[in-house]
Amino acid sequence: MNLYMVGRATLGVAEWLGRRGKAVVAYDTRLMSKEFARHTAQILADNGVEAHLFPRPVPTPALSFAVRHLRADAGICITASHNPAEYNGYKVYGADGGQITPGDAAVIAARIQDYIEGEHRTSKQIVTVSETVLSEYLDAVEALRLTNTPCDNLRVAYTPLNGAGLECVTEILQRIGAEYITVPEQTEPDGRFPTCPKPNPEEDSALELGMTLCLAQNCDFLLATDPDCDRVGVAVNHNGIMRRLTGNEVGVLLLEYIVRSLYENGKLPPNPVAVKTIVTTPMARAICDDYGIELRDVLTGFKYIGEQIGLLEQDGGAERFLFGFEESCGYLSGAHARDKDGVNAAMLICDMAADYKRRDMTLAGAIDALYRRYGQWVTRLRSVGAEPGIVDRLRHNQPKTIAGHPVLKVTDYLKRADGLTADVLSYELEGGTVIVRPSGTEPKVKVYYLLRGMDDAEIDADFQRLYLGRDTP
């Protein structure tokens, strides 16, 4: 990642836009993010695209919102999300505010290959995104509250992990009346991420300082957003012991809270829809079936959840969308943005926690109650270093059993005719599912174990059999 590569990629985007129209550029707190974003905006402006640049780091979902709010044709966010400090990245968004899907990505990639230095047609001035856009984004998030009751019974510890979430998350916590403290070492923007080599809210190590502070200050729970504030991690102070909730656990808690709240208040829309990715917990289906909600499964990547919102909107039914989530701590409850939204999720988590606290329950107690009601599902991930083509070889040599468990059904997503086409294999077993897919960024194969059992011990035993089985992929 360097200025030349950023410029070349931006020329590809400018060509994709026909060297006209409008684009919004945002960035996070990573090293060189500001410089890359400024360079991106300048290249766009030099090539006939009206470039709107945020004046400081903002959450990625604010970029998604701004694209729609400003009626732009595209958006670009300079971020590597939750990856280590040595990484940076370049996310492209379409006019709908969602990350581009593979078709548009292929077109832009072809334009990048055709890039010729110095082909500039016109020049425009960079436009600074108005402060009102961020304020209107927060208004749109606040409008998604399911209650008017202040969260004044909560004390929350919050860490932005030295990222871009501080301003927006603390503002939304103030608006809903939640008392909060921040982790001092992780409060200010710092692209080196000095206290957590992996600023990922899925990692216990990233939450250590926050969990220590949460206990010491007797907070109800810890909220942690990643550097671009699109993911949220949660650790709960449950009777004086910190318990980190998984992305799946927070997701099903939020799903049930949203659906229950709307149901009890008679505000469920006709034909409501929830969306999850194929590697996200099947427990969501049990909840949706219980309340009569349509649940749609999409490929891995929040862009596909955003795509479903767009399809509902095209049919005049955007209000049917209730909630979308993925197991990697990404959540969204509204159509204001088309990407996972850490600010939106932080607000909903606080509202939900305040509701449970009024019933003398922590969020840890709440997920245990849902397990008793719907059964306990756990997702485990195993990453295996592998050379390219291993999934294709597995495709042509399908196992009949996995660690002694008969394979009841095989789904090859390359052969699906419903649009869910990807290099993914799914093996349905009794009591769970194993999903295999190549990583999109590393020479690895990811194996997801989606298991159901009576308790942790039973699930752990099943996982060990699957993980260590000789015929496990």
- What form results from the Cα inertia axes? globular
CATH superfamily of the largest domain: Alpha-D-Glucose-1,6-Bisphosphate, subunit A, domain 3
CATH architecture label name of the largest domain: 3-Layer(aba) Sandwich
Q: Main sheet: which strands, in order across?
A: 4-3-1-2-5
- Name the average pLDDT: 92
CATH topology of the largest domain: Alpha-D-Glucose-1,6-Bisphosphate, Chain A, domain 3
Broad CATH class of the largest domain: Alpha Beta
In total, the number of strands is 21
Number of separate domains: 4
Give the count of helical stretches. 14
> Which range does the strand content fall in?
15-25%
**Major beta sheet summary:** 5 strands, mixed
Helix vs. strand class: alpha/beta
What are the segments in which pLDDT stays under 50 over at least 5 consecutive residues? none
End-to-end distance = 33 Å
CA radius of gyration is: 22 Å
Helix content: 25-40%
What do these coordinates show?
It is a single chain. The strands form five sheets. The protein has a five-stranded mixed beta sheet with strand order 4-3-1-2-5, with helices on both faces. It has a five-stranded mixed beta sheet with strand order 7-6-8-9-10, sandwiched between helices. It folds into four domains: 3-129, Alpha-D-Glucose-1,6-Bisphosphate, Chain A, domain 3; 138-245, Alpha-D-Glucose-1,6-Bisphosphate, Chain A, domain 3; 248-373, Alpha-D-Glucose-1,6-Bisphosphate, subunit A, domain 3 (Alpha-D-Glucose-1,6-Bisphosphate, Chain A, domain 3), CATH 3.40.120.10; 376-468, 2-Layer Sandwich (TATA-Binding Protein). It starts with a helix and ends in a 5-residue tail after the last helix. The protein has 14 helices and 21 strands. It has 473 residues and is an alpha/beta fold. The chain is 37% helix and 22% strand.
